[in-house]
Amino acid sequence: MSTKRSSDGKGDQKKKKFKVASGFLDPGTSGIYATCTRRKERQAAQELGLLFEEKLQEIYGDKLKELENDDNIDENVNEPKTTEELSIEEQIQQELSEIKTASNPISKEQKKKELLHFVDLDCECVVFCKTRRPIVPEEFVKKIMDELIDPQNSIKRTRYVQKLTPVTNSCSASMEQILKLAEKVLSPHFHSTESEKEGYKFAVEVTRRNFNTIPKMDIINNLVSVVCENGKYKHKVDLKNYDKLILVECFKNNVGISVVNGDYNKSYKRYNVQQIFEAKLNQKDTEAITAKPKKP
């Protein structure tokens, strides 16, 4: 007997469908991308929210206190005048302002949380946390990873989060804007007096999601030109043994750039949380087998 075929002639084979992301990021956004288990984006954002809030206090505690002190000073300077000092019109304006403030109060905790804000990208397997000063995404993620790779740290704080990628700054998806952003982000790493003398081995890694505006190689070649400045600097491209790696994250009409050091690939497992803890477990298993006494 002949078997029935589907109308499209493909039998029972089904293609996995990935929906097009509906979210977007504004130019000038800095933050942290995180990949995660599919359909666990909300849980991953919750895990990261708790972790980032804790590390925010540990890493930037002193700077946060300075910001709070500055806010208190501003409040005292802008303290409203007494009723006797105001005209009738000014009294009405002050009352309206007080009513508006009372209906929408913003606590210090809310101001603190604004430093970390998760943006709904509606993109499968990806979440994004927008950051503001004093947070520096490159520094923030690096310090979190320093703690995670510590052999003494055996606590895994996340279940669904996989890889973290910092974004120092971003722009709209045009080559003109990318070149301006590259000059701003890359200069501190590649155009100092020290780097001019020594020169670095570097590579460029481009990740694209819902993005086909600019070809990948066009982005890479232009960033190499910005780094080397037509031979002014002695930097050389090395895809394996690089001193610095330029990370480019392209999402829809937004392009973000950051720079990480050469140990990103080996010691830090490309900032992949899962791989870091898997390596720790394998190391413990190896040590346990080695320490086990042999039978006579």
Automatic annotation (TrEMBL):
It comes from the Eukaryota. Residues 1-22 are annotated as: Disordered. PANTHER family: THUMP DOMAIN CONTAINING PROTEIN 1-RELATED, THUMP DOMAIN-CONTAINING PROTEIN 1. The keyword Transferase applies. Residues 149-261 form the THUMP domain. GO terms for biological process: tRNA modification. Keywords: RNA-binding, Transferase. This is Similar to Saccharomyces cerevisiae YGL232W TAN1 Putative tRNA acetyltransferase. The keyword RNA-binding applies. SMART domains: THUMP. Coiled coil: none annotated. Pfam families: THUMP (PF02926). GO terms for molecular function: RNA binding; transferase activity. Residues 1-12 have a biased composition (Basic and acidic residues).
